[in-house]
Design goal:
The chain is α+β, with helices and mostly antiparallel strands. The chain is built from 4 helices and 5 strands; from the N terminus they run E-E-H-E-H-E-H-E-H.
Length: 143
């Protein structure tokens, strides 16, 4: 999709989206691009400024399109990991068993985290056992 700034013979300015530059040209040739204000089919492309970042003090500038992670997100996940590791017990691949036992009242409740296979996770959710995925790999599973 491409957006063009347009202007009619009466200087009415408007914008419109087109599937491509070629689609715009084809619609223009058939007289199908018209001014929404006066209906004139005598339309030309107008000057269009690129979108730029706001001036200082008006908010953050957009981040560049890169594969670099958002530093604020990295910091938030790091803080979450630290909190989980300090306040919860790592139960490894016994997570589904431990979570179900606490949910059923067979064990006292305590905060846990660990590993679970996708089919086990689905079954926990279906059975109403509270569990959420974490946005990090437990340190016990990293080298």
């Amino acid at each position: 999709m491409i957006r063009y700034a347009l202007k009619c013979e009466d200087s009415h300015r408007f914008e419109s989206w087109f599937q491509s530059g070629a689609a715009f040209e084809a619609l223009m040739a058939r007289g199908l691009v018209t001014c929404p204000d006066c209906g004139s089919a005598s339309v030309t492309k107008d000057l269009m400024a690129p979108k730029v970042a706001a001036s200082r003090g008006e908010g953050p500038a957009p981040r560049a399109m890169t594969n670099a992670p958002d530093p604020d997100l990295v910091e938030a996940i790091s803080k979450l990991r630290k909190h989980v590791e300090e306040t919860s017990d790592y139960v490894g691949d016994r997570f589904a068993h431990e979570a179900r036992a606490m949910h059923d009242g067979d064990q006292p409740h305590r905060p846990i985290y660990g590993d679970v296979k996708p089919e086990e996770a689905r079954k926990l959710i279906e059975d109403g056992v509270p569990a959420l995925p974490l946005p990090f790999i437990p340190k016990q599973k990293t080298n």
